[in-house]
Amino acid sequence: MSRVLSHFFVVVVAAVCIAIGTTIAWSNLAGPATAYVSKADFDQAFADPFAGQRELSPAVREKLRSAGSVFLKSSPAAGVNREHKTDRLPKVGAIPAPKASTAPLADCEPLAASFADPVLGRIIGRCFV
């Protein structure tokens, strides 16, 4: 019985696939053969977005300026005391240069290859233990 049922199921699936396929094919064949055409203005598509903006009147500009100054005066960042702040980066001469070792250690490698930079090639970079 299961063999007959499985054959019946295969036949039903095949019939449904054929029905769907013919519906899609018929809609493509029997439908109007018109192409969808859209019109785009090239100059408008690549125009400057700020070209059409109008200038603010002096009264509106002054209102915006006064509102901005009120906001800046009321913000907590305006109350920061920057009087005693200095440049926190060290001076160029303040960092001591790394000491060059005269004899390389057995399990250590240089900071750089000696053919790439002879000075850094004499400085020990890291040692393997």
Structure description:
The chain is mostly helical and 129 residues long. It has a domain at 102-129. The chain contains 3 helices and 2 strands, in the order H-H-H-E-E. It is flat.
Could you name the key traits of this structure?
129 residues; mainly alpha; two-stranded antiparallel sheet; 39% helix; 3 helices
Largest sheet: 2 strands, antiparallel
The radius of gyration computed from the alpha-carbon positions, rounded to a whole number of angstroms, is 40 Å
Number of helices: 3
Uncertain spans: none
Main sheet: strand order: 1-2
Task: Output mean pLDDT.
Answer: 75
Structural class of the helix and strand makeup? mainly alpha
Principal-axes geometry comes out as flat
Sequence of secondary-structure elements = HHHEE
Q: Kindly state the percentage of residues in helix.
A: 25-40%
Strand content: 5-15%
Characterize this entry briefly.
By secondary structure, the protein is mainly α. It has helices at 2-30, 42-45, 58-74; strands at residues 108-110, 124-127. The mean pLDDT is 75.
Secondary structure elements and their pairing?
Blueprint: H1 2-30, H2 42-45, H3 58-74, E1 108-110, E2 124-127
Antiparallel strand pairs: 1-2
